Hints:
This protein is mostly helical. The protein has a two-stranded antiparallel ribbon. About 60% of the residues lie in helices and about 0% in strands. It is a multi-pass membrane protein.
Amino acid sequence: MPVLRLLICLLCLALPAVAQEGAPDRSATGGATTLEDILARQRGEKVDDAYRATDTGSQTAPLEAQLGVRGGASDSEIFRALRYGAADVTVSARGPAADVIIQDDGMWWLSLREGALRDYGTYALAGMIVVLALFYLLRGRIRIDGARTGRSVTRFAAFERFGHWLFAGSFLVLAVSGLITLYGRDVLIPLLGKEAFATLALACKWVHNNIAWAFMIGLAIVTVNWIAHNIPNRHDLKWLAVGGGLFSKGLHPPAKKFNAGQKIIFWLCILLGLSISLSGLSLLFPFEMPMFAKTFALANATGLPQAMGLSLPEVMTPHQEMQYAQLWHLIVAFAFITIIIAHIYLGSLGMEGAFDAMGSGEVEEQWAREHHSLWLDEVKSAEASKARPSPAE
């Protein structure tokens, strides 16, 4: 799966460099680059650069040694000390990590964000659109098979629809603003120019940060409203066995208020919504809500990363925490958007009568009979109980 491959790629790139076996002896240069290092690079060979993090002028070598330190630190050594956070820096600011002048880990984050992650995410979105287009061409719109009764049934109350549209509407705004931020430099700058895109990007950032609160409130409302209706039951197995009748005309497996497909979407929305909310909060409050160092510590305690030959870092700077949070935020966002594209299709163009459930809240009784027959029976039974006179009467 693309998301799994991206996650593995993310973990592998994030690991601290491990010195290769048989690394050259650099004691003669006080740990600095040796002639053999230079020649190896010229020959196109891979050279482990982990040693450069300590080549900051703090080590000494004999005066007669080749390429040894001469006197004070050189400009290169000072730059490396700044790059790897080893320099003695004094700043006037008092905020967390204010003394970080250069953040070296930003390069692997940037290359992954603008490279493999964005590529695979694009493939996932485009792939879902292609699949749905083919499904529509082969299956067509799922129509109401039986004769319409002219009677309507209340499927969702006003508060249920409010929670859904708050959750869905805010998600769409977040998705669009996030995609503009991700693809804007390559796609929009050539069309709009840098100044216009800068204004748009700033607006997207503000909207994204503030609409996030509406998304989280909507997530809470949806969870409270529907979690009891989305507990799996034996009817879900029958629904899944025939693909919900989506691929066969006239086939309508029984289902309660939510069928197995809707339950899968519900739980994915809850899990992905919770995950993307937590990573978003970590980005909004990076110094107050670091997530990944503690998460990696728990993962390492299980022994699973070690079994895969990995060692996840358990100590991170705030910048590193933000890079992990941003990448995870984007991975979850791509998965979320891909799923919601399918949900939007089935709830509008893909199925006749489906949009009415969230539009007016009322659905045609025949539609309810075909797609949620067990739920309709419960509704009819409840209505009959209310209409039946009590014994006292």
